[in-house]
Amino acid sequence: MCNFNNQAQQSKEFLHLFMTKAAKNVGGVNYLLALIEAIRSKKPHPLIQKNCQISSNNTIIQWNKVIFKDKTDLIENILVAHRESQKKDLNILNITNSKTKKNIINMARTLAPLKFTVTPQNQNDGEGFIFNVFETLEDDVIKFNPVFIALFFCSSEFTKKAIKYQI
Fold first, then answer.
1. Virtual torsion, Cα 55, 59, 64, 65, nearest 10 deg
2. 19, 30, 52, 59: which sits with the fewest CB atoms below 10 Å from its CB?
3. In-domain check, residue 2
4. Residues 35, 56: contact at Cβ < 8 Å?
5. Number of domains present in the structure of the chain
6. What pTM does this model have?
7. Per-residue pLDDT tens for 87-112?
8. What is the spatial distance between Cα 154 and Cα 32, in angstroms, rounded to a whole number?
9. 1 found inside a domain
């Protein structure tokens, strides 16, 4: 999932358009990349922050619910399994193990109401943007939002490739 070249054409175009617009809405590409670096610097994992906020020098990302370590571990396990399979379409319910499938459904129910709000610290830099954890959340199809994965689980190189991508 974190290899931009292995993304489906539709995902590449979506990521390019969204990241370009997101960078514009927070004051520029450098501000967005600085936020991603601030996210990467948080340990053990940025989503586990109790104050539900991470800030860089120019940008703040906030979310509305505390996320526990078991959920982030499950997401990382899903991403590792997907990386090994090299599929372009990530329906995370395509798993034969019923216990794992149940854990994924429970994780999806927990994280579905989560909203991330990214805002620049200076209001003159832009209006910011909002995104969710999931792109698709149906009975038999659950897909992560590529923006969520890009910001919290992929490197800043992934975002640079998405911004530079030519449609």
1. -30
2. 30
3. no
4. yes
5. 1
6. 0.88
7. 656 788 887 788 888 999 999 999 99
8. 14
9. no
